[in-house]
Amino acid sequence: MARPESGSDEALLRAVAAGDAGALTRLYERHAGALFGYLYRLAGDRMIAEEILQDTLLAVWRSAAAFEGRSKVTTWLFGVARRQAHNRLRGRSGPEPVGAPLADRPDRGAGPDELAIAAAGGTPVAAAIERLSDHHRDVIALVLVAGLPLADVAEVLTIPVGTVKSRLHHARAAVAAALTAQEVPE
Amino acid sequence: MNEMLPAYAAGSLRGADRDRVRAHLEGCARCRADLAAWRALADAATPGGTAPDAAATVRAVLTRSAVEGPAGPPGDGAWTRRLRYAAALVVAEVRLIRLAVPVASALMMALGVAVVVVQAAAVAPPAAGADVVLALVAPIVAAAGVAGTYRSARDPVAELLAATPTAGPLLLLVRLALVFGYDLVLAVAASVALSATAAGGAAGLDALIAAWLGPMALLSSVSLLVAVRFGPDVALGAAIGLWAVRVLAGGVFADDNWPARLIVDAWSTNAAVLAVSAAFGIAAVVMAGRLGPHGGEPQGGWRATHPT
Hints:
The complex is a heterodimer of chains A (186) and B (308).
Chain A: H1 9-17, H2 21-43, H3 46-63, H4 73-89, H5 110-119, H6 124-130, H7 134-145, H8 150-157, H9 161-181
Chain B: H1 5-10, H2 15-26, H3 29-45, H4 54-67, H5 78-96, H6 100-122, H7 130-149, H8 158-162, H9 168-197, H10 205-230, H11 232-251, H12 258-266, H13 271-290
């Protein structure tokens, strides 16, 4: 592997592997917004997102030396974050099972919907996103919240770019359908 | 064009692609509407609030790293870490076993082999077989070793062990595996040596092993059980006593009365004997976990630390 340019993500990660805590801080600062936004979207709760963020940075701190430079640091970082989120969120009562079209669900009345809306940050769209299946929400969070290029998203999720695109469109259609069912204009 | 819009809306599109999308949007109302929908979705999906402070977060992470113990070398899975731990435990236990125990065991076994060899040379063929001698020596050697695996009060390392975070039964199990495994290897080696030199007479290797395996397992497990409950000295005495009864029943008493036959049958190699031995062994380890707070010292006995 060529010597990483100083100041690059690779160089920072090398320094982290060598035990440089300052490098970890700089690496985190560089990706903080995207990384935390992604985790917040997945967890749906700020406290839990912060815990997963710590798990992620701890994993980075401990396994930085295992980074082989075969992928970009960004995709490696999000891969670690995704695994940590999965570890912590596993077993939590999840959203609707994969592929269940939200539009087919009977309207459960205002009570739970309003609660979900409030929990998801106050907007019906956010509530609908909250109810997406895991892999739809993952794609939305990586592309639209973290702002990762589609090629990177494909690498993080280890799926083809075409699948990323189709999942994005399905996710949007599901959100639109959920909103139509609630008769809220998108 | 359509499929670049999500990335464009999220701002992750760069260079020529971004310029192309921008140019296209000028003249395409449908794509502008589509883009607006993606933007609305992106806005709704983006949670409010800023990311946690970098310095504070990294500090918390470093604290956790220190508190939760050092990580294994990079790339380690949970299994390699566990294996490494087990290996370290075995090495540590090996260093704690008194040299006298393995040396005495080996000498006893060597004596047994020597008796067979000498006898085979001195006496005409229908001499006492190698299987008989091995069956007499191997079980008592193993039982004596196993009785010593249970940490006695006089053991100078008992105090140290009482302070280790590793569970007492686990330590006992490791020590047991070491000592019993060592005696097993010794006995097998003796059997191989005897069957190879033909001093063992007609008996094959499997017959030789069958002669001592069951009794060795049973006597050792009884010895361990007694050691856990009453201490190693009592266990050693019990093992010797039991074995004396077996030896007498097999040789001195009349062969054909039923108590003697029963005793000899109980000390042979078969599935029932091995199962009972295993059950005794498990019971002993479980009991070691229940007894005493200091890794299973005998109840009411000496404690590693004295209350002041």
